[in-house]
Amino acid sequence: MLSDISKQTTRLILNEYIEIPFIFDLRFPCSMKEFEIIQNIHNNLPYGDADMTIKDQAYAKLKENSFYKNYFEDAIINNEYLFEQYYRDQLTILLVDCKIQLDIEFVFSLVYNRNSMKTPTDRIKYYLVYHDELKQLLKILNYGFEVLKDDINKTLIDTENALNPNYFPLKTNDYYKLITVDNVIYQIPPNTVIDNAEGLSEKFLFECDGEPFVENCLMNLIELITTPKYIQVINNIQNILMIYARISLEISNLRRYTVDNLEKLKAIINLLTSILALYDEPPKVFQMIMTDYITSNRLNTCANIDACITRLKISKNFKSVLEKNTINKILSKLEIELLKNWLYDNNDNYVDVLQILDNSNNDLWKYSAKILAYFERMLGFEIIRTNHGQITVDGPYAQLEQYLARVNMSQRKTKIEHLLSNRIHSYLKQTIGKENIENSLNNDYKYFEDNLIELQSLLNQQQRSHVKVICLISWLKYYAEMYSFALIMTQSQHDVMRQIDRLLLNNESKVCSSVKIFIIKQMIYFHNISLEELKQTLSNRNIAWIKPILLQQSDIHEKERNNFILPTTLFECKNECIHINQLFKQLKDINQLENLIRKCQTDKNLAYSFYLWFIRYYRRFYTIKNVSMDISFVQLIENQLQHQLISTFEVIGYQFILQLCKNFDNQSYFQLKADMTDNDMHLRLVALNIFALYLASKCTTNSTYMNSLLFDVNGKMPKDYSQHLMTRCLVGLQPNNNHIVIQMQRVKNEVQKD
Q1: What strand order describes the sheet that includes 177-181?
Q2: What are the boundaries of each domain within the chain?
Q3: Which pTM was predicted?
Q4: Is 187 helix (H, G, I), strand (E, B) or coil?
Q5: 404 vs 255, 301, 391, 418, CA distance in Å?
Q6: CB atoms within 10 A of CB 164
Q7: Distance of alpha carbon 277 from alpha carbon 275, whole angstroms
Q8: What would the pLDDT profile of 159-213 be if each residue is shown by its tens digit?
Q9: What whole-number distance in Å separates Cα of residue 715 and Cα of residue 717?
């Protein structure tokens, strides 16, 4: 006996601590044991089977293994009061097991939801199968509790039955509300008035793969934590950002819940993240935004969102280590997120977003992919595919047509037309696999033929539908790209290839010519070859339409070499380049040039475009055979414009322009010669383009890393560039490799001491 006691004592000493969970307020005996049984059943479920099969299997196992044996089904399941106590116990233990601080009454109201039509069997099946999902939901609400405290109960808005006509008019407050009519669930958004049952349109239908009441609760949680009442008391941005980010992540990971207003929370997260990343005093900046925009609900229009971001951009409180481009990029992405969030609640006014994207004073188009993805769903690009590019301008497209017509009346092309066309083209490409290209070419050939004629007819009209033009161009690009792939990659011998060949050969319209160029371009891209190599590849192929083009290109190549890409601006400097090009073409008065050069002093886009014109002029020494220097033009630069050029661009800029006009000297790497290859020319153009960017960076009021490389703090050319550059950087080392830079700086200092 003493030996047995000794063994037990030794065992206790070895274990040292025995954790005995102690949970108050359990109603059933041995609820802990039942919890373990339920967890074991959940962990061993065969999740490959159908959902109903899994639920039935789980329920059968619980009936068989429940601690309460036959009493489980005979007494607990069939007695509403006993089942509620049983269910409450299991939820209480789950809260303790997951270390959740939520009140059991709140959790019970959420999960049990007495207003639902579910039986006790349905409820216990949910608990068995969706045990992990329930844990996720409780974690999300627990994070919400850290922000809302006792106000977390406001997320629970009961589902009501609206069969009684006296129930209307219905007016919701600041939260989402669920109502049922004839067993159909409708979700009414915040601050909405429904006059009668007929006002419950399809847009209010609430479809949810999970529990509608739970999803409604999550959406109300987001509505609550994004209201000014809770945001404006934020002192510790890092802490609240962590909570919001966890809520967003956990909701995104829920498989059965979409939570459509999650974007509203993501917009706040992006705002907090951007402020934290950019500013030395984030709380001050955040409170300024709160006071001036959020609390006063001024972020309710696209114009106000744009004004808010503009105000953030002109702040003087940025972290000193940040470059201007980095700041602009972060704030532009933030603006896109805010606009996207606004769009979800105001999709009837989506044109307001287009106007902001189309503004020539910003570069939001670079980051517009998320907004265009929204337009893809809202406008329904699928209809463009099913109608083969031929659409009727109605519904949401009518508003787009009105906007494009209004903008085109000002005789300017819009970024929106390019962005939408490219997005539609990308969408159409995603709907077809490589293995189905031949069938698609064959099935859609008639539409290709018709669309070529239709597009040319539209373009010939002064009053044309811009939406139809965009859709037709996108679809024709899609079809032409399939054809180019079949032509060069699979070398298809399908009958439709000969039909397309004859059509392209006989159609001499401008639209068809553009399509031919696009096909050639795509073949070069797909095969990763040059135009010259493409000619050789297709020389023995029986493709009638392409031979005249390639022969014509060969003739041109004898006179002028154009087989390389010239430096070209995008949206930012497009208008400046057009203006400068027109001015040089129609130059009548030297004063026009002098005025242009003066304007360059404070406009880096204009300055860059000015340099770019001379780089494009310089290429003539390579592309045109036996061309000589234009002495009269050089004299114009040297004699009449020298003073103004030096005043604006410094001597280095003046000499750069002059050397471009003279083709540099014989010892210069940049002198163009007849025996150069296209690649030699391309390398020089790239280098000159980069140098022009650095020179143009002088023409701004701000001091940046870029303009400090070639100019001093006053924007003047330094006397000794070798000394100046040594103060700006260690040539050859990456500036972000701090360890190496510090080591090399130390070596340099030691050498200078000796």
Answers
A1: 160-161, 177-181, 184-188
A2: 20-148, 156-296, 380-551, 576-710, 718-753
A3: 0.65
A4: strand
A5: 40, 20, 16, 12
A6: 9
A7: 5
A8: 665 555 567 778 888 889 888 877 788 888 888 888 777 777 777 888 888 888 8
A9: 7
